[in-house]
Specification:
Length: 542
């Protein structure tokens, strides 16, 4: 016999009461809620109740067991009807047996109040002139609320006192008044939406979503999807948490620094919603591993911070016929694109993957925390739209956001017949990243400025103005920002040699690869960039 249960058939109150009979109980109280024929002046024909029984039973059981312990009663039960109820039928029954009437009354009232406010149960009133839609029972009134709220409650309170007089004061066992947080997920706020409802929540519950990256974009994506009740949530990330991440990756805490993000995210998400099956993968998304992992999910969400992974996610989604949401952030700007099977993909817009390093990531160019937070929240929203099967303006388009000016642009994207990813659907995921490996005698990297000067190379600082001001380069050089150099490389001749310098060597390395493809074979990258120069200088002074 369960302390809380649902019934799809009419309730037998005599049998329920008999189940609580106890020689040690002198008091018995019950609450009965019936379906009535009018609500807010509208004639009611019948009433429907729905519930997520697996979740609701757990929470209902907790409530009844808590009441037994709090009020020191000997027995308590609650049974709630689900399905279609006729007028006059019993919708909910609560019974309590206790040594004295005070405890029985208090526990009975506590149970029905908590059931109404904490258990995920929804109802729909069918009127003569239409229906109310699904309404979460949290909006229904507890017996003590005012008349205006009671209009939402189709039940009558029948409390029966079967007690013997006793001077015992039940107030000594009453709750302290402290608020009690729900111990089970409550999706009522989203289920109330017409686009969600009971059926939509079932779709969310059945969904399987894989998030690639648990950083600035991934943290809000994971939080919102777990909160929404996505059934299976995978997270791939091979990085460990750094203190510099925390201003934008607020899923984590300072004492978590040094731990793998994927495992940290799993811990936080399970605490947020224990009914979500969180599956962490402590690894990078690679060509030889991502397809096998992604095959087990319905929707892929790219939250990575590099082009190679972003295009890999695109290619895997196209190859497996998966839906995907792709986003990226640069300083105050961001963009988002939704991939559906058969729609335009990332390579339909940019056939060749941009080389990593040509555009600085958050570590190099900086970012305010809310920027990836906004884009990540939008990715979560787009994923839920996919699950709920609603349309999105980000399909067959790239949507651009400037969060400084709050301007938004939507660029139409069309499926390209020459798209490398679509052409490779039946083969391995497309990969057209150029091979940057060169022969030893023409290595694209140079270790020190002194070596570059000895070889007569012209030094070019690729960094932005702000970076140069913060850490100037104290050797003879030219300052040509990366974007300008790649946009017009005519300033470089093919006879002179050039050393390209950036903050950490990533952008300069990518630029060298691009320039060499254009015929500028005598270009080189400074290993470690300006940051590496500081480390070398420190070492030389020891």
């Amino acid at each position: 016999m369960s302390a809380f249960e649902f019934s799809h058939i009419p309730l037998d109150t005599q049998a329920l009461q008999a189940s609580l009979q106890d020689p040690g109980s002198g008091g018995y109280a019950s609450f009965e809620g019936w379906v009535r024929d009018v609500n807010e002046g509208r004639q009611v024909k019948h009433l429907e109740y729905e519930a997520y029984e697996a979740l609701a039973k757990k929470e209902g059981q907790r409530i009844v067991e808590d009441a037994i312990a709090r009020f020191r009663v000997r027995g308590a039960r609650c049974v709630h009807r689900v399905g279609d109820l006729r007028l006059g039928e019993l919708a909910v029954w609560v019974g309590v047996s206790a040594p004295h009437r005070g405890e029985a009354f208090a526990a009975c009232r506590h149970i029905i109040d908590e059931i109404k406010h904490r258990v995920p149960i929804w109802k729909k009133e069918h009127y003569v002139d239409g229906d109310s839609g699904w309404v979460n029972c949290e909006r229904c009134a507890a017996p003590t609320l005012d008349a205006s709220n009671q209009a939402h409650d189709h039940t009558h309170d029948h409390t029966h006192d079967h007690t013997h007089p006793h001077p015992h004061d039940a107030k000594q066992h009453a709750p302290s008044g402290a608020s009690h947080q729900p111990l089970a997920p409550d999706y009522s706020r989203q289920i109330t939406l017409a686009d969600v409802g009971i059926d939509g929540q079932r779709r969310i519950r059945a969904a399987r979503v894989l998030v690639i990256g648990a950083g600035g974009l991934g943290a809000p994506v994971l939080s919102y999807l777990a909160g929404a009740g996505v059934g299976v949530l995978g997270v791939i990330d091979g990085d460990q948490l750094d203190a510099s991440n925390l201003h934008r990756q607020t899923l984590y805490s300072l004492h978590d620094v040094g731990r793998p993000k994927a495992l940290l995210a799993a811990e936080r998400l399970r605490a947020l919603n224990p009914d979500v099956d969180v599956r962490p993968y402590v690894q990078r998304a690679e060509t030889d591993t991502l397809p096998a992992i992604a095959a087990d999910f319905d929707v892929l969400i790219d939250c990575s911070d590099n082009f190679s992974t972003r295009f890999l996610v695109n290619d895997v989604a196209v190859g497996l016929g998966k839906k995907a949401v792709i986003a990226s952030v640069y300083q105050y700007e961001g963009q988002i694109q939704v991939l559906q099977p058969g729609s335009a993909c990332l390579r339909c817009v940019w056939p060749t993957a941009t080389r990593d390093g040509l555009v600085g990531n958050c570590a190099e160019v900086g970012v305010l925390g809310p920027v990836p937070g906004v884009l990540g929240a939008m990715q979560a929203l787009e994923a839920l739209k996919i699950i709920l099967q609603t349309s999105s303006p980000a399909e067959n388009a790239v949507v651009l956001f400037d969060l400084q000016t709050l301007q938004t642009r939507r660029l139409k994207a069309t499926r390209s017949v020459d798209c490398p990813a679509h052409c490779a659907v039946n083969n391995a995921p497309a990969s057209d990243a150029p091979d940057t490996r060169l022969s030893q005698d023409n290595s694209p990297e140079i270790a020190t400025l002194a070596l570059a000067q000895a070889r007569g190379l012209i030094i070019i600082d690729l960094r932005d103005d702000q970076e140069v001001t913060g850490a100037p380069l104290h050797v003879a050089h030219h300052h040509i920002p990366l974007a300008r150099l790649l946009d017009d490389s005519s300033a470089l001749n093919t006879t002179s040699g050039y050393l390209l310098v950036c903050a950490k060597g990533m952008r300069s390395s990518a630029a060298v690869s691009t320039l060499r493809q254009r015929g500028h074979h005598n270009t080189y990258s400074l290993v470690g960039g300006v940051v590496g120069l500081g480390a070398v200088n420190k070492e030389s002074t020891r």
